UniProtKB/TrEMBL annotation:
Protein name, entry field: Putative Star-like protein
CC terms in the record's Gene Ontology section: endoplasmic reticulum membrane; Golgi apparatus; late endosome membrane; plasma membrane
Protein's UniProt keywords contain Transmembrane: yes
Database matches in SUPFAM superfamilies: S-adenosyl-L-methionine-dependent methyltransferases
Source organism per UniProt: Penaeus vannamei
Listed transmembrane segments: 21-40
Source taxon at top rank: Eukaryota
Keyword Membrane: yes
Residue stretches making up the Methyltransferase FkbM domain: 121-304, 469-650
Sorted UniProt keywords: Membrane, Transmembrane, Transmembrane helix
Length: 689
């Protein structure tokens, strides 16, 4: 082999046109590799930029196509069940995990209903602690069984249930993603079959919830696997199902987020059993009654029917007459339940062979052939490169199924620092004087209420860090300008509207500024924003209208307001980042004051914050309860207040425009402001409630 290569090189060197051809070959090789390197880098960058725009939605056609083709298996046709008989030990384990409690309520609610559709998330093997097998066998139902653990899913297939099955997981959110799962297995031989499934029933996504210790975890070995997850709405859309009679949700964490992600205006779920542990409290209290969760479900239209000691909540749709009658007839709301409620394209190197072995040809002919082959090789490689570039979009789309970029992903932080964060400028302020009419508008929009509390809280504090989301022009109804000018603070001002942001730059505030938006979740994405323009040519009125800039794809965007009649609207795409991304990019772990006015999604923003690593001392939040009737949306939301209390915040004040003032309860410097006798606004709202 080596001697043949040497002969080829000698032939090439003896050719009269060898020098020119050699240079030509080097130029082709150099340009080819440069092009390939450029496209590889370009594709990698494009993948990240595509992910920044956000993951595909739950009902994106690409998501549904992948789900139908690869993750949904239909019910078997005319084949008998493969079920095993249970013994006394099995019945003991069933009682241990609360199966009998759930089964009793399922029988009571659906004893008279023939046919129906169920969804069981956390189906295990399809028999042991199954909450839907009785409905299928005895009442002729069908449905969907979802199981992330590979071993359990193989047994689920073997059982031949009369339902669709899926080896996947439910994503606790509105977008598909890939997740790492932790499965448990028994460490001792000789445990009975039921005990084996008791271990497998604890399969869970590997995240902060996995740190919750239990007896089973300490006596088991663990294995890990990657599983593709989809929102529950994706499964239902793929199966063309709009009504679920019974939902069993046991996914070992994230149940609240799953329910929150459901489009309940288009999907009806009549009854559900949810195993919900309150991760906002200490481990010892995690299984106790979660009043915030129950209040949230009530506002969605669900009545808590019962709750057991294993944190299994039974909910029924209040407006469902049939279920209400069944619950009443069975007397399901017993004293026991009520008491518990309190307690890369691999480019295969292209190889070729020349025809140099043919001694008949002249030396120049040989060189021409070599050059021709190189040109052909370059053409083939170019086609491969172009193909890679052309198909990069579809590959990227599939990659996006694995989930969006995380809030503190290095690429996210680099992009944020390089393109979306402007440092404090030098030079004097460009502020305008406010007249009497300006102050009236300030009062109407609730600025004076927030400003009064900001002055009370931080009158003695020199220096601090604020974040104002919805900064507008940096002066009109600014909740942080006084802190910056009078108390020497700095911070971050975020504004999605382009016109407002240009004015914000012109003001020369002593803070970082960003033309972007806060994402109501844990991942960056692109959003479409609606801005209002006043038809009345009054300088201050411009900002009154611009202050209503909102994302169009939120429940809040559907709320009619009086300004809409007097305005024209424009639309733009804005890049959004989680609040945690901004803070990580600026190396900030303590925020003294957060002003959150983003016209919808405030609760989700707060929920996404890693408050174990970030401290926010006080915050002003404009929050509308979009779950309530229009007349009650600005009233005090008890579920929101209770949620904030669980996070360690006390409601200091609330005005008639739904501006909530919260302070961190354990902050000694803010304690004097917590005296309710000095706060007539809070007292008035509490008496009204």
């Amino acid at each position: 082999m080596g001697s043949r290569l040497l002969r080829k090189v000698l032939v090439f060197k003896e050719s009269p046109c060898a020098g020119g051809c050699f240079v030509f070959l080097l130029m082709i090789a150099f340009s080819l590799f440069m092009s390939l390197s450029f496209v590889m880098t370009d594709n990698e960058s494009n993948t990240f930029l595509e992910q920044l725009r956000g993951p595909p939605g739950a009902e994106d056609p690409r998501v549904l196509e992948v789900l139908k083709k690869h993750y949904l298996l239909p019910p078997p046709v005319s084949m008998p069940y493969n079920l095993t008989s249970g013994d006394a030990t099995s019945r003991y384990f069933l009682k241990l995990v609360g199966w009998d409690f759930i089964h009793r309520h399922v029988r009571q609610l659906f004893a008279q209903q023939r046919g129906g559709f169920f969804v069981e998330a956390g189906a295990l093997d399809g028999q042991f602690i199954s909450n839907t097998l009785w409905l299928e066998k005895e009442r002729g139902w069908t449905g969907l069984l979802i199981e992330p653990d590979a071993l359990s899913f193989r047994h689920l297939q073997w059982r031949r249930r009369r339902a669709w099955i899926s080896h996947s997981c439910i994503a606790p959110g509105q977008h598909p993603r890939e997740a790492a799962f932790e499965s448990m297995g028994r460490t001792k031989k000789g445990l009975l079959e039921s005990g084996h499934w008791l271990y497998r029933a604890n399969t869970r996504e590997y995240n902060e919830f996995s740190s919750i210790a239990d007896d089973i975890s300490r006596t088991s070995f663990k294995s890990y696997s990657k599983v593709q997850c989809f929102p529950l709405a994706s499964y239902l859309a793929a199966l063309n199902v709009t009504k679920v009679d019974f939902l069993s949700l046991d996914i070992q964490g994230g149940e609240w987020e799953v329910i929150h992600s459901l489009p309940l205006d288009r999907i009806t779920i009549r009854a559900m059993v949810v195993e919900h542990l309150n991760t906002r409290v200490d481990l010892e209290e995690a299984r106790n009654f979660d009043a915030v969760f129950a209040a949230y479900m009530k506002e969605l239209g669900y009545r808590l029917l019962d709750l057991d000691a294993k944190a299994n909540y039974v909910f029924v749709l209040e407006k469902d007459a049939a279920l209400a009658a069944a619950a009443a007839a069975a007397g399901s709301q017993g004293k026991a339940g009520e008491a518990r409620r309190r307690t890369t394209m691999h480019l295969r190197p292209l190889s070729w062979q020349s025809n140099c072995r043919n001694r008949v040809h002249s030396r120049c002919r040989r060189v021409v052939l070599v050059v021709a082959e190189v040109v052909v090789a370059a053409a083939v490689l170019a086609v491969c490169v172009v193909s890679r570039r052309y198909y990069a979009v579809s590959c990227t789309s599939l990659d996006r199924l694995k989930g969006p970029l995380a809030a503190e992903d290095p690429f996210v932080l680099e992009t944020l620092r390089n393109h979306y964060l402007l440092p404090p400028p030098s030079g004097s302020y460009n502020l305008t004087s406010l007249d009497k009419k300006d102050r009236l508008i300030h009062d109407r929009l609730g600025w004076d209420f927030i400003h009064r509390h900001v002055r009370q809280l931080f009158a003695q504090q020199r220096g601090g860090f604020f974040v104002e989301a919805g900064a507008l022009d940096g002066q009109f109804i600014s909740n942080t300008l006084w802190l910056e000018k009078e108390r020497g603070w700095t911070g971050l001002l975020i504004e999605p509207d382009a016109l407002s942001f240009r004015h914000l730059q012109w003001r020369r505030r002593r803070a970082w500024i960003s033309h972007s938006c806060i994402a109501p979740g844990q991942h960056p994405r692109e959003a479409v924003f609606e801005s209002m323009q006043s038809r009345v040519h009054v300088p201050t009125s411009v900002w009154m209208f611009r202050s209503n800039t909102k994302e169009i794809d939120t429940p809040f965007a559907a709320i009619e307001d009086e300004l809409g009649f007097f305005s024209s609207k424009s639309y733009s795409k804005v890049q959004c980042f989680p609040l945690a991304s901004y803070l990580a990019a600026l190396n900030v772990s303590k925020v003294d004051f957060l002003s959150l006015d983003i016209q919808g999604g405030e609760w989700e923003v707060i929920h996404s914050l890693p408050l174990d690593r970030i401290t926010i001392r006080a915050m002003a939040v404009e929050y509308f309860n979009t779950r309530a009737d229009e007349s009650r949306r600005m009233a005090r939301d008890e579920a929101f207040v209770s949620y904030m209390k669980d996070l360690g915040y006390i409601l200091l004040a609330l005005d008639d425009l739904a501006n909530y003032i919260f302070v961190l309860a354990r902050d000694p410097a803010l304690e004097p402001s917590l005296d309710p006798r000095s706060n007539t606004t809070l007292a008035r709202n509490e008496s009204a409630a």
